[in-house]
Design goal:
The protein has 278 residues and is α/β, with parallel strands linked by helices. It is built from ten helices and eight strands. Strand 2, helix 2 and strand 3 form a beta-alpha-beta unit. Helix 3 packs parallel to helix 4, helix 5 runs parallel beside helix 6 and helix 6 runs parallel beside helix 8. The radius of gyration is 17 Å and the shape is globular.
Length: 278
């Protein structure tokens, strides 16, 4: 089995475009680069990663692609471009020329307008994603799921991956509304869902058992063929170390067969993002 971490980040603070990454975030307010992650990947026999954007600039996307060129374990990059720009299709075509550019991700969770993704001026960008066979990584919150469903209906050929299970409000005990809405995404679209980012949504005192209802729901509605594992490292270290999340994943997947675990922990990412097969 080829194991894949389908959601991780690198950043170099001196680049200056990580507006959300302030000193108040303490332990993650420093550079995180490939030498920091490689020992963790080796310890857990993880062969490849998908590197995901952390800044809303094409400059950061080029920075990530340059790291991918230097470090073969980075087999895919999910970057950023301005979907609302008049030249968005041309920008997407330009970025798509790099073989490791696998998808794009607007930072929807940080956009004040909850209806942003349905704006007419974004339609050419979404069509360009389809033309270039790129994944739309949906960084959404539960309040966006209705609009995400509408977007998927508009663009049935758009390949969608829901990041972090749409960030359910685990710390506040939010479940039913999220469960219903993400259930509709699973039932009515072909989207995949990332099993990632949940420890930070649970916050202090998180445990595998506290996460289990959310993970069990995602597994039941998407099935093991449409769930993709990721670490969300280093953001996840605000709540848990890499080793802790790997161990918790083992517990949370204890009801899955060996074949299902292999799919969730690597095979699905290879298929969804077009990575190198085993």
């Amino acid at each position: 089995m080829k194991r894949v971490d389908a959601h991780q980040h690198f950043w170099r603070l001196s680049r200056g475009d990580y507006g959300w990454l302030t000193p108040e975030l303490g332990p993650i307010h420093r550079d995180f680069l490939p030498p920091d992650l490689e020992p963790l990947l080796q310890r857990h026999d993880i062969a490849a990663t998908v590197l995901v954007q952390a800044a809303p600039t094409e400059a950061e996307t080029r920075f990530m692609l340059s790291l991918a060129d230097l470090h073969p374990f980075v087999e895919g990059v999910v970057g950023w471009t301005d979907f609302a720009a008049a030249d968005a299709p041309a920008a997407i075509a330009r970025l798509a020329r790099h073989p490791k550019l696998k998808g794009l991700r607007p930072m929807i969770q940080d956009i004040a307008d909850a209806d942003w993704m349905l704006r007419p001026e974004l339609e050419p960008a979404f069509r360009a994603l389809v033309v270039h066979d790129l994944v739309f990584d949906a960084l959404v919150l539960p309040r966006h799921l209705g609009n995400l469903l509408a977007l998927a209906r508009r663009h049935p050929d758009l390949r969608i991956v829901v990041d972090h299970c749409a960030k359910p409000a685990i710390a506040a005990g939010g479940f039913s509304g999220w469960a219903d809405d993400i259930g509709r995404i699973a039932a009515e679209t072909g989207a995949a869902c990332k099993l990632s980012g949940l420890v930070t949504e649970a916050g202090a005192g998180w445990s595998a058992e506290r996460l289990r209802p959310y993970v069990d729901h995602v597994l039941s509605i998407f099935g093991p063929g449409r769930v993709v594992w990721g670490s969300d490292w280093p953001v996840s270290t605000l709540a848990a170390g890499y080793d802790d999340w790997v161990a918790a994943t083992g517990q949370l997947l204890d009801g899955c067969s060996d074949e299902e675990r292999e799919a969730i922990l690597g095979g699905n990412a290879v298929r969804v993002y077009g990575l190198e097969p085993s």
